[in-house]
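Reopening this ticket.

The earlier resolution said the output was attached, but the attachment link was broken on my side. Pasting everything inline this time so it's all in one place.
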Amino acid sequence: MANCLAEAERFLAEMNRAEKAQLLQWIVRDLDEAFPGIENTPGVCGNEPCIVRTRIPVWVLEQARRLGASEADLLCSHPTLRAADIANTWAYVRLHREEIEAQIRVNEDA
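Inline output:
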């Protein structure tokens, strides 16, 4: 990773402003669906989106909220969670509602 960043820095130094602007547009487009604190790693937690540093799937927190758990309850019952993790989770759920609904249904049936 350090090599990639050093190489990117070298490329940036060689680019003109228009090229940098184009690169920035590509990066923004690529990150449009990115959520800080939420990751989907193949082979981890059934390939479901999880909270970073944990193996807590997003759907678990959403289902707990639907069942009446408060944010304070979630933070107490999952000591590795941070308040920012909860905020990132709700943002992810808002934009991926159908995906989360399907994961809840699948896991309820299991």
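Reporter confirms the inline version is readable. Residues 17-31 form the longest helix (15 residues). The chain has six helices and two strands.
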